[in-house]
Design goal:
Structural class: alpha/beta
Strand content: 15-25%
Number of helices: 10
Order of helices and strands: EHEEHHEHEHEEHEEEEEHEEEHEEEHH
Largest sheet: 8 strands, mixed
Pfam family, one: DAO
Protein name: NAD(P)/FAD-dependent oxidoreductase
Radius of gyration: 21 Å
Keywords: Oxidoreductase
EC number: 1.-.-.-
Shape: globular
CATH class of one domain: Alpha Beta
InterPro entries: FAD-dep_OxRdtase, FAD/NAD-bd_sf
Distance between the termini: 34 Å
Length: about 450
C-alpha cells in the first residue's frame, strides 16, 4: 500500500483491481527513463493534470514536454476515482465563497468550474474518446431536513445572486423520478455534471499527448529535483532529465520529499469505492434507480454514487485515516452498510469490486495552481479533479508561458501550509469522529 506521507515511492506496485481496470486493455509498459536526457519542460506525474498540462504546453505553446511517471499511466487517483465530472471543487458552496470573498469572486470561481466541465466534454468529443459519458446532471442530496433547507437556499442563491441555473427537487418527486433513496430529503440539481469511465478518459488523454509529440516515461520514479544554473535536473534510478522548467502533477500521490515547494501543504485522504454486480431490470425497479446522473449527499463525511452503463451501482465514501489500515475489510463493510441504508433492496446484492485511492485536500478547501521561478503545480482538488484538472492544466500551461490567469484565489497563490503538519493525520482522525457525530445529528 502506497501512503504518500510515509512511503518513498509507488514504483512497481500493482494497479488497482478496480472496475475500471476490468473494462480496458492496459497498454504495454512504456519505456523507463535511462541515461541523460534533455527537455524543455519536465512534468512529474502522468495523471489527468500531468497529461493535460503537457498537452496544452505542446499544443498551444509549441513546448517540448517530457512526462515522467513513477508507476504506470492509470496507477494513481485519475484511474481510482468514481468518474464524476462535477462543477465544483473542495468543500465550499458558492454562498460560502461569496461570504469568504465577495460575490464577483464566487461568480469567477463558478465560471472556472463550469469551463472545466465544458473542457472535458469538448475533449471527449474532439478526440473521440470512448469513455462512456452518461446523461448530464449532478444531484446533491439532502440527508436531513436541515440540509434540505440549506440546499433550497443554495438553489435560490445560485439562480438569484449568481444568475446561473439550479433546481431544487422536492423529496417526493426526487424519490419518484430520480432515486428512491430512503434517507433523502430532496436534492439540488445542477444540469451539466456527468459520469464517465475515468481510466478510458485517461488513456485518451495519454494518446493525444503522444500524438502531439509528448514523451511519456513509465516506471521512472523521480528521486530528487535539483535547481541548476540552466534550470533543473531530475534524478531517477535509471538516469537524469535536464529541463528548463518542472511541473509537479502528482496531486495526492506527490512524494513528500520531492520538493520543499509542497512540503506540508496537502492532506492525502483515502476514498473507498464499491461496485455491485449488475442489477436486473426488476432489481432496478425495486430499488428505485431511475437515473444515471451522478449523486453525492450533504453529510460531513459524504457518500457518492451513480448507476453505471451496465447497471451496476457504484458507491463511494471515506476510507481509513492511515494507509497501513487501507485494506481492512471494515471499510468495505461500512460502505455496503451505508449503501443498504440508502437502498434497502440491495442488502443481498453481491459486491463485485472494491478499491481505494488517495485524494488531496487543501487547508482552505480549494485547489491552487501556482508557479514560481520555473516550477509549477496544480494540487488540492478535494475529490473533484476529474473535471477541474482540465481547466487547471490549461491555466497552468498558460502561466508557465507568461499568461496572466484570472484574479481568483485559485490562481497565483501557493497552497497554505498545514499547522503542525507532522500531526495532520491525527487532526483528520479527530475530524472524522466529529463528522460522524454531526452526521448523526443531521
Amino acid at each position: 500500500m502506497y501512503d504518500p506521507l510515509t512511503s518513498s515511492n509507488p514504483q512497481g506496485l500493482p494497479l488497482a483491481n478496480s472496475y475500471w481496470a476490468s473494462t480496458v486493455d492496459i497498454t504495454p509498459v512504456r519505456p523507463s527513463l535511462n541515461g541523460r536526457r534533455q527537455t524543455d519542460i519536465a512534468v512529474i506525474g502522468a495523471g489527468f493534470t500531468g497529461l493535460l498540462t503537457a498537452r496544452y504546453l505542446a499544443e498551444e505553446y509549441g513546448r517540448e514536454v517530457t512526462v515522467v511517471e513513477a508507476n504506470r499511466v492509470g496507477f494513481g487517483a485519475s484511474a481510482r476515482n468514481g468518474g464524476f465530472v462535477l462543477k465544483g471543487s473542495g468543500r465550499l458552496g458558492f454562498a460560502q465563497m461569496a461570504r469568504r470573498w465577495d460575490l464577483d469572486t464566487a461568480r469567477g470561481i463558478y465560471d472556472e468550474f463550469s469551463a472545466a466541465v465544458a473542457r472535458v466534454k469538448g475533449m471527449i468529443e474532439s478526440d473521440k474518446i470512448a469513455c462512456e459519458p452518461q446523461q448530464p446532471g449532478y444531484l446533491k442530496i439532502a440527508h436531513s431536513p436541515k440540509a434540505m433547507k440549506s440546499l433550497q437556499s443554495g438553489a435560490e442563491f445560485i439562480t438569484g445572486q449568481m444568475g446561473m441555473q439550479a433546481e431544487f427537487i422536492e423529496p417526493e418527486r426526487f424519490r419518484r423520478e430520480y432515486l428512491n433513496h430512503r434517507q433523502s430529503f430532496g436534492a439540488l440539481r445542477l444540469e451539466d455534471g456527468f459520469g464517465l469511465n475515468p481510466l478510458k478518459l485517461l488513456q485518451g488523454y495519454a494518446q493525444r499527448a503522444q500524438e502531439l509529440g509528448v514523451t511519456i516515461f513509465e516506471d521512472s520514479t523521480v528521486l530528487s529535483t535539483q535547481r541548476t544554473g540552466k534550470g533543473f535536473t531530475l534524478e531517477t534510478a535509471g538516469g537524469q532529465l535536464e529541463a528548463n522548467a518542472v511541473v509537479y502533477a502528482g496531486n495526492a500521490y506527490t512524494q513528500p520529499t520531492l520538493t520543499a515547494m509542497l512540503s506540508g501543504r496537502a492532506l492525502p485522504i483515502l476514498s473507498n469505492v464499491i461496485v455491485t454486480a449488475p442489477l436486473t431490470p426488476e432489481q432496478l425497479q425495486m430499488v428505485g434507480l431511475h437515473t444515471t446522473q451522478v449523486a453525492m449527499d450533504t453529510r460531513v463525511l459524504k457518500y457518492y454514487y451513480r448507476l453505471l452503463p451496465d447497471n451496476r451501482l457504484l458507491f463511494g465514501g471515506r476510507g481509513a485515516v492511515w494507509g497501513k489500515h487501507a485494506d481492512k475489510e471494515v471499510y468495505v463493510t461500512r460502505l455496503k452498510q451505508a449503501m443498504v441504508r440508502a437502498f434497502p433492496p440491495l442488502a443481498q446484492v453481491d459486491i463485485s469490486y472494491h478499491w481505494h485511492g488517495w485524494l488531496a485536500a487543501s487547508l482552505d478547501d480549494i485547489p491552487h495552481i501556482y508557479t514560481r521561478d520555473g516550477e509549477g503545480y496544480s494540487l488540492g482538488y478535494c475529490g473533484a479533479g476529474v473535471s477541474f484538472s482540465a481547466q487547471a492544466a490549461w491555466r497552468l500551461a498558460g502561466m508557465l508561458n507568461g499568461v496572466k490567469p484570472p484574479d481568483l484565489p485559485l490562481y497565483g497563490q501557493p497552497l497554505p501550509s498545514f499547522p503542525f503538519a507532522r500531526f495532520r493525520r491525527f487532526g483528520q482522525w479527530g475530524f472524522y469522529h466529529f463528522g460522524r457525530f454531526m452526521d448523526t445529528l443531521g
